[in-house]
Automatic annotation (TrEMBL):
Record-given protein name: Non-heme iron oxygenase ferredoxin subunit
PANTHER family associated with the record: 3-PHENYLPROPIONATE_CINNAMIC ACID DIOXYGENASE FERREDOXIN SUBUNIT, FERREDOXIN-RELATED
Source organism: Luteimonas wenzhouensis
Rieske domain ranges (all copies): 6-105
GO molecular function: 2 iron, 2 sulfur cluster binding; metal ion binding
């Protein structure tokens, strides 16, 4: 588990409906941070159906989801749960914080 927060971007670089990516400084896990109507959520940047970056997909701000471009699996950005086939497993949700005008996230899995 990483106790080290990873800098993602400035708050000005992450507008509503947008996402930014980073790699956890300790675990190396890909992290995608999504701005959903001003609330920030961080997920592992990996589709649970097929090992592919969720950040290559698009955010649906109405549904609050991110769609994997590979096979169309969608995940709720608020909690990582799979919303449709072909994905059935959730993606990991990570903590995110705003500090000093920056957006930070970390892989907090055991």
């Amino acid at each position: 588990m990483s106790e080290t927060w990873t800098y993602v971007c400035t708050t000005a670089e992450l507008l509503p409906g947008e996402m930014k990516t980073a790699f956890d400084e300790v675990t190396g896990a890909g992290i995608v941070v999504v701005n959903l109507d001003g609330e920030l959520y961080a997920l592992e940047d990996r589709c649970s159906h097929e090992d592919f970056e969720l950040s290559a997909g698009r955010v649906d701000p109405v549904e609050g989801s991110v769609e994997c471009v590979l096979h169309g699996a969608r995940f709720d950005v608020r909690d990582g749960r799979a919303l449709c086939a072909p994905a059935y497993e959730p993606v990991a949700k990570f903590p995110v914080k705003v500090e000093g005008g920056g957006v930070w996230a970390r892989d907090d899995r055991e």
